[in-house]
Batch of 2 targets.
Target 1
Amino acid sequence: MFTATVTSEDYLGAIYRLREAPETPLPLSHLQEHFNFTRVSVHEMALKLAQRRWVIYYPYQGVTLTAEGERIAAALVRRHRLWERFLTDMLDLPWDEAHAIAGQLEHAAPEAVTEKLARLLGEPTSCPHGGPIPPALPAQPGVALSAVEPGRTFAIVRIFPEVPEVLHQLAMLGIGLHTAVQVRQQTPEAIGIVLSDGREVTLPAAVSATIWVTPA
Amino acid sequence: MFTATVTSEDYLGAIYRLREAPETPLPLSHLQEHFNFTRVSVHEMALKLAQRRWVIYYPYQGVTLTAEGERIAAALVRRHRLWERFLTDMLDLPWDEAHAIAGQLEHAAPEAVTEKLARLLGEPTSCPHGGPIPPALPAQPGVALSAVEPGRTFAIVRIFPEVPEVLHQLAMLGIGLHTAVQVRQQTPEAIGIVLSDGREVTLPAAVSATIWVTPA
DNA sequence: TACAAAGATAAGGCATACCTTACAATTTTT
DNA sequence: AAAAATTGTAAGGTATGCCTTATCTTTGTA
């Protein structure tokens, strides 16, 4: 598991805000325009984010967030909008300034502090510009299978989000809750795992990102 | 003029806190221990800070803050301690956590925001650990001569701090308030300037750091 | 004064995250 | 289908700020 750098978080947050719908890939050109970076830089970063399993990169189409990327992005946006409220409501800063400064504070304060802030502010549900504040996510009961290092053995504790085809596919393979899996190898597109009965299975990255595990 | 990076600010803040007295050079070994960096890294950074005129580096002795370095450091410590108060008083965080998080927030929020925070908190004068909160400095009426780029012409608006020998030396040279000066060249030890009457004068860095100017 | 400890400096490396230039592949438009 | 526009990729560069290894200089003390 990796920890998102400030830059990575900014990218994930931007993808979260700029996308039309969670499933629609966000073209890299939008990110380029948003950050005012070059095409090449954005592309480089997209590859890195994909490598870390925070996004799925569809060449010539764009990027979508994985479950893990979604989690990071939603938490970031929540922190951002809560700080905005603090800045406007308690420090009387104007909208625009609040936005810029919240962009810094969102990285500086850990989740726990921001939750205390939320309580202080009265658990607001929208930011000063009307943007919804994502709810505090219950901690995931594990990490995404797509995010673990090869080698160790894990137990499946959840499938999320619950995509019908994925659930069906997993059922066909005899993979479910409590199944023990060991990661063999990872590529940007797929993951190779070994089940407890010795079978070797290859799953698409999109599937492995919905499988949540804990160390066995 | 340069803007201090987060890292530079951290160094200046550490020098401010760790030194015994403003005039006593702080040995680099203290910084090394504080940050847990290698001797070489700290030395590198000391040279950089000296190059930016935020510190004066006395080899084999240590570093002292210049007037400009002092300003940056005091402002940083003020921000740090105000955020600490916010975290303990309004968010009910324990001491130690507050300290660590304030270390992040102090870089994230601009001066203006922190001043509004000070008002919200009731202008406290000490941090949760009893450390004094430096007062908000009145904005210097200019920039240190040691900090300007060579080429342009400036007018002297203040000599600060007022070191008797320096004042005397400047008087002998006919340099005082409103004198127009143009920077010719800078080295880490000295600065070469041209006066309005055409005279070329070389001043030690320690002197040029006490001469405050505005663009003419 | 000689020697050990502390400090300075030179040279080369690494990771992050940006950049430019140049060329190749794909998609969209005409 | 061909041309134009968009997107991908390769190669090399920059700055920051940390690292190791190795050598040299200064300081302080026996």
Target 2
Amino acid sequence: MRPTLRQLQYLLAITDTGRYADAALRVNVTQPTLSEQINQLELELGARLIERGRHGAILTPIGRVVAERARRVLQDMEELKSAARSGEDGLSGRVRMGALPSVGPYLLPEAIKRLHAAYPDFRLMVREERTAELAAGLAEGTFDMAIATASDISAAQADHLFTESVWVCSAPNDPLAASREPVTLADLAGRELLSLGRGHKVTAIAQVIAAEADCRLSSEYEGTSLDAIRLMATTGVGLAVLPGIYTMREALRDPDLMVRRIDHPVARRELSLLFRASSPLADSFAVIADALRQTAAGFPPQAFVRN
Amino acid sequence: MRPTLRQLQYLLAITDTGRYADAALRVNVTQPTLSEQINQLELELGARLIERGRHGAILTPIGRVVAERARRVLQDMEELKSAARSGEDGLSGRVRMGALPSVGPYLLPEAIKRLHAAYPDFRLMVREERTAELAAGLAEGTFDMAIATASDISAAQADHLFTESVWVCSAPNDPLAASREPVTLADLAGRELLSLGRGHKVTAIAQVIAAEADCRLSSEYEGTSLDAIRLMATTGVGLAVLPGIYTMREALRDPDLMVRRIDHPVARRELSLLFRASSPLADSFAVIADALRQTAAGFPPQAFVRN
DNA sequence: TATTTTGTTAGGTAAAACCTATTTAACTAC
DNA sequence: GTAGTTAAATAGGTTTTACCTAACAAAATA
């Protein structure tokens, strides 16, 4: 692209030295080269920039404003280079993560804090989406990575994080509240289950459980957030089906709610860190996955299923 | 200079289209060229910018910040180009003028106003200096032009503007105040003349007159501005020697001062617009000189010597 | 008039940027 | 699981251009 950056450098060298020969020395070319390139620059810009003569080289008024702007262009380029260089080692820059809304708010704040402490230049931009949107965003490049169930997004590469248990929550006066032991599917027979709206992973799990246990899944009271269905459960309209991490973080401390783990092979959710196989951020993913696992390790063990 | 502006353009084309082939089309090169240049860009910056694959081209986090900065660099370059183009026709930009302090304040404000009305993009930067500094500044390129006496700065090319008459001013009770006719040198014999400090053109003229008329030039009360020596003259300590334009603009309306023209071939000052012969601003100089002459034409004719 | 200083012009070379054609890689479809 | 499709990468050759050395022209000084 004309003018060339090099031509601008030449112009500045002449501006600073006031003499072609000295300027040529400074930019490590011969004086004729400089002369030719400056002529070309003037031709391209359609303006006389330099007044030549025995006195050396003097800038014209236009030459002065061009030189000033040239300085700025070169400065910007230097900044670009150093910005690129800053990302050389370790984690840095803005990495975009997609996360299921049933994990993100309860796991990521702490994990981000942990990562930020170790890598101050690192910024994780999180956006909550449902499984289908995460898959699409990952494919298109809207996300660099995502936290979701690996089996739902087969196109991506997965780094397994942990397997959540699934819990059922009821009002304290509910018959289920009589025990704290894990419930069997038989205990749920005929009951009404509450879950998030269509498209959410927890809803998909609740659907499978509902089919197995022969109970209905509420479509009348579809919640939009886990907090919403938790609060519905406290009123006794049904049983909230909640994932382990959320249950430990939010439901356990609610005195108006009783929680019991569901004891069944299908009542689990394997969460992984997902990314495109072609992504060059492999090292970063390992570090981030570690941070997420460490954060998860801080939760009560009941939140997870061993292995 | 690496990276090249063209490489940045290529990066942006890929950023916008998300596909090498489409990007190549947009920047009018073939896909392999693009591929090679981007590889080189990555090598130069030492960072992976693009994640390639069947899905097309997706930017890495570092790639995103580099692309953002690239946009800025190219934008700055566009601005540089249009800045250069803006000076193509007529007067524009910041032209630096040097002027004798005995002309500048009394002639230039009006001339600048006139020029600015005709050429809105034009800015004249004026700096007042004595003859020697004007000569040096013109040679070094500190000034694009100067208003001074051509014969004093022979190295420069001159465009004659006008020839000022020289006046002598006295207190109203001075014997010289008896008439309004031009004074001869005989009238000044034995008197004390007041002028600016050493190095000023008006002082040089006063010195010649003092030598011819056999009178002293005050070194005890050397003024630094024409206003200062005018005020000294009103106190009766001596006769102020003042140039025509200043006399018309400032001295004439002072009721405590009588002014008379000096009638002698040496009592004149030829002022020219001076510039380096090599300066490419020849067209501009003609326009500026015209504006100065027109401004001068607005003064009373006594300020000047015909021819 | 000779000399020095400063930038320009000429002619040739080596590096780069590009091109066409081909190859590789990773999905998709049958 | 093979064939087809759609991306980008590689190979080999051509053109452009940035650069060099050498010779030249202009202007100022000795």
